[in-house]
Amino acid sequence: NAGVTQTPKFRVLKTGQSMTLLCAQDMNHEYMYWYRQDPGMGLRLIHYSVGEGTTAKGEVPDGYNVSRLKKQNFLLGLESAAPSQTSVYFCASSQTNRGSPLHFGNGTRLTVT
Amino acid sequence: AQRVTQPEKLLSVFKGAPVELKCNYSYSGSPELFWYVQYSRQRLQLLLRHISRESIKGFTADLNKGETSFHLKKPFAQEEDSAMYYCALSTGNQFYFGTGTSLTVIP
Question: What is the rounded distance in angstroms from the CA atom of residue B100 to the CA atom of residue B8?
């Protein structure tokens, strides 16, 4: 059981380049999330999805776009990367039951130069 | 607005000493609270959730609605407890995290 899988694990981008981070879960979870983790700031929600075909903005959505074309996949896109987007990105998923916890991926370490 | 506060960024204790990691929340509804742990360069893992009222790896946490707190406690810290700990609040389809407390257990 793989759980939540993120690809890639590491990436270095130059300012202005674009990229897509892929998150896949095999637990049939309805909810999926993208967080960024920065020192001293904890985890901040970028975007989330409550089901296939739906997306919503989180706390820090600017500069990012997402898509949930299939229930098991949640893509995070950076159209024009900026140094401020240097961070560790975590994908997570959960069931819809009240009290269900988040299940996290291993993270993607992104550096924008 | 929902908020989770972890007042200590860094916490050091000696092995065998008690440890308490503080978490306070603000939420007008009925909260669902969790503690997550992140060991060095690993993914975040669920440690505790308040609805389970369980003890994991010797840690416990009690929800105090009067004080709006969900402090994490362990009577005797171990070196393997050294990690980053995050308190999280669920409002249904969103989770809000505190800024985390880095715990170091000194041998």
Answer: 8
